[in-house]
Amino acid sequence: MKKAICALLAFLSLFLLVACGADSKADVSNRKEVILSVDKSDFTKGQFYDAMVGSYADSIIINKLRDMIYAKEISEDMSDIEERADKTVEDFKEAVGDLIDLYLNAYGFNSIEEYREELVSSLKTDKIVRHYCDEKMSDLLSAHKPVKARIIQCDSLEKAQEALKVFQSGENIDQAYTDFGTTAFTSQPVIVLSDDSAVDATLVAVISAQKENGVLPAVTADANEKYFYVAEIIDTDTSAFTDEFVDKLISSSKVSEDTALGFYAKKGGFRIYDEDIYNTFASKHKAYLSD
Fold it and tell me: How far apart, in Å, are the Cα atoms of 51 and each of 24, 66, 124?
């Protein structure tokens, strides 16, 4: 079924390429040509085009655009992507052994080839997003102002004050998480963004205002004084944790494949000339279109 749909979309994309001309209302050539017939009822190329464009135009355009952008922006990375996919497949085969079909079915794949295809697709998506982040790093840093920090959350002011003493001493910090902290954070440093929704807003504001490394001098309470925080600024030099910053942007959905494709589509002057197709596409994917 999946291959049949792909073939259908590829077939229709030929029509869309014809449609993307200078006219405000594009059409397919030879509209009256019969392509299907049942008894005395005919289905023409024009009817096929009208029906399929109405149902699949968005998917076709996005798929075609994705292929073009990938080919231009990350073609040099494809060998690495293929090798990583092959390595993952081999590791998977070794791990599950004779149960491979059982695991593939459980994950929704009909074959190992289909699983590999999904791996390649996922790796390409990750690569284009990271490629976008590299190109837009200066803007992303300005927008999100990342700081690397260690945070402990406590459920009472008294515990937080004790934790602060431990942080200030610089000793037995791991133990402080066991003795005074909730399970919200571990002793591992995290990346905190100025618009971070995973960290208390009051604490974010305090951390984002810091210019130097070190333990914050006071406990920070949330707006309801339910939780109390102690934090240590580990690093404000973003060049030291660029990869972690990008990981944070991706995991928190601050950037996505849609973000990257939209950027490169606009950068490449992406246009749709057919009025009906444009209106349908723009209603869902305005960010892809040049002004």
Answer: 19, 23, 31
